[in-house]
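Onboarding guide, step 5: your first structure request.
Type a short instruction followed by the sequence, for example:

Predict the 3D structure of this protein.
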Amino acid sequence: MQSSGVVVPLSQLQEGFGRLNAAQALVAYDESLVAVDFLARLLGTRMAVLLQGMGSGRSFDQSMGQLGLQAADFEAQVLRRLKP
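The system replies with structure tokens like these:
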């Protein structure tokens, strides 16, 4: 992912992959897998609270904040996991 020199910010993944070129889309899918896996491990059963918050119209940042977490910290941790 980062070794290819291409990184798609997680905030852009919320907008869908349709506007990405083929290389960016491939990276975006890989990044999504890493992000969701890490999020599930981080939150465990609290994932339901995050999804409920987002389902009721809150942003990812707001829903993470509801759990006492910062979305920017989460993204930084995901990016560290993407490095070789």
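Each response can be followed by summary notes, for example: The helical segments are 10-13, 22-43, 47-55, 60-66, 71-82.
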